[in-house]
Amino acid sequence: MSLPCSVSSSGRPGLSLGQPELTSALFEKLSEFIYAESGIRLPAAKRTMLSARLYKRLRELKLESLEAYCQYLFSPAGQEAEIVSLLDVVSTNKTDFFREPRHFEFLSRQALPQLAAEARPLNVWSAACSSGEEVYTLAMVLSEYAERQADFDYRILGTDISTRVLEIARTGVYDTARVEPIPHELKLKYLMRSKRGDGRYRVVPELRARTGFRRLNFMEPDFGLREQMDVIFCRNVLIYFDRATQERVLQHLCLHLKPGGYLFTGHSESTSGLRLPIQPVAASVGRRL
Fold this sequence. Notes:
Elements: E1 7-9, E2 20-22, H1 24-38, H2 47-61, H3 66-73, H4 76-81, H5 83-90, H6 102-115, E3 122-126, H7 133-148, E4 154-160, H8 163-171, E5 173-175, H9 176-179, H10 184-190, E6 191-193, E7 200-203, H11 205-208, E8 211-215, E9 229-234, H12 243-255, E10 257-265, E11 278-282, E12 285-288
Parallel strand pairs: 3-4, 3-9, 4-8, 9-10
Antiparallel strand pairs: 1-2, 5-7, 6-7, 10-12, 11-12
Helix pairs in contact: 2-5, 6-7
């Protein structure tokens, strides 16, 4: 595949002075490619953002221009080696500990008492886990529940399209600002302060041992999951997909959700009107039929 690889000058924010911006034609070609590979739809307003992020990748590859990057990306070597890195550049990785806390309250108070009697162990999947804050929030909530429930056991899988953020998730190391939303008593219990005095914390080994992380692209026909899940969190990622892609992704997720299992989506992500085997039970929470 070959693409026209010319660029135009721009003084918009996000680009250094003198850095040319992607032309409309090249942006359209790249955005179509990104959509086909990841389901992420980039509107025209994201042209400057994509240009700026690609310049960071150019420096890493020691390429001199967007033309050179374009030629590399669509070469046989680039198609083999660069697509994952491109999607790392494109993906947005906004997350927090205990984000949308009512979901974790519902999980602890309503979902877990219903599921714990049947699932051994409970399988939980954070399907767009970013840098791991959601996974470790779930681990804290489930560990607290395990202290009150005899013989309760669990495993958590975290997946994301970005290899870069998965590296952060696996280490479980976060700075002071990142751990601020964690309640004080849980912070004392489940985080270790760095001995270097650099204001960093690491999730305790007992929680990390119950988690696993791997890369997953929602556009893949086979997610590679052999176990069925009792709980799936897929929050604040559907907003980057068009409606048809949202439905296709959620249908695929539901194939891996046990009947009676729970699906959590972001509060700004409506599943109304989508053809899904899900019965709404709370705000942004559905149960598999």
